Amino acid sequence: MKPELLSAHEITSALDGGYWRVSVIDETESTQNLLRTSNPKPGDLITTEYQSQGRGRLGRSFSAQKSTALLFSFYLAPKCERNNWGFLPLLVGMSVANSLIKITGDSNFKCKWPNDILFNEKKIAGLLVETLDDGVIVGVGINVSTTQEQLPVAHASSIFLETGKQLNRNILLAEILAGLTPLLVEWETGSNISSLIAAYSRLSATLGQNVQIELPGGKQLGGIATRIDSSGALVLDSGELVTVGDVVHLTSKLD
Ligand code: BTN
Predict the structure, then answer these.
(1) Reported confidence tier of residue 58, pLDDT bands at 50, 70, 90
(2) Where in the chain is the domain with CATH 3.30.930.10?
């Protein structure tokens, strides 16, 4: 099936307000890099059909064949304290997971702390959050129509492979942004962080799991993932706070 092309008009006309300024480009090295060098303003977003040097977390690459994935980066300048910015990827992850659940009607999409979206423990999407001046560039890569042969790594999958559905990327992006805007407003006001933590926890594939965490520098931590705190850190049963790392889900505490 021929994929639909990304269209800034389709994306913005599906959105109510005028917060997001969407640009579509056919190909680029990486939307993260392009946005970083374009003197971005809050709400600027770039999406592309293809990245020649897509980047993942912790120096990894993120590759996807042309038009099979939804790839985008946007710039935000959060009004709340920098110490709490670790919550931002959780909000974006929530909006991605909620949008996928809404559009596909399948509730198996979950958030893996801190930056992945899973479907039955297989990675469907990843997020990359990088600071720039007084703000952050958030990059999102979602495997939409990727086939088995096109998957970059064995533990990954795509929306198509898991649900059999071919999603329209313009509709998906508009849904994600429409869901994200009120979450950002609620988070920035800081008035009801406990309801955001509760909403994230309901979507979490990590909480309740016996986890192993690979910390930058090669150290490892283990324990039961117990809760998320207001800065977005993962709290283990030992009381230890984890702010960065790669999480491996071992067995669920509830098994
Ligand atoms: C990860 O899974 O490690 C994060 C992947 C983030 C990929 C997205 S695709 C759009 C944006 N541009 C990039 O080069 N990376 C992010």
Answers:
(1) confident
(2) 8-200
**How many angstroms does the Cα of residue 216 sit away from the middle of ligand 1?**
18
Do the beta carbons of residue 127 and residue 140 sit within 8 Å?
A: yes
Q: b/e string for 19-46 if b means 16 or more Cβ within 10 A?
A: ebbbbbeeebebbbbbbbeeebebbbbb
Please, are residues 19 and 179 in contact by the beta-carbon 8 Å criterion?
no
Q: pLDDT at residue 161 above 80? A: yes
CA-wise closest residue to 184 among 55, 63, 76: 76
How much is the pLDDT for 17?
A: 73
Reply yes or no: is the peptide bond before residue 114 cis, omega within 30 of 0.
yes
pLDDT at 109 over 50: yes
Task: Record the tokens describing residue 235, joined without a space.
Answer: 């709290």
CATH architecture of 206-249: Roll (2.30)
CATH number of the 8-200 domain: 3.30.930.10
Pairing of strands 241-242, 234-236: antiparallel
Ligand 1: which of 128, 169, 214 to mutate, judged by most atoms within 8 Å of the beta carbon?
Answer: 128
Q: Which of 230, 36, 34 is nearest to 135 (CA)?
A: 36
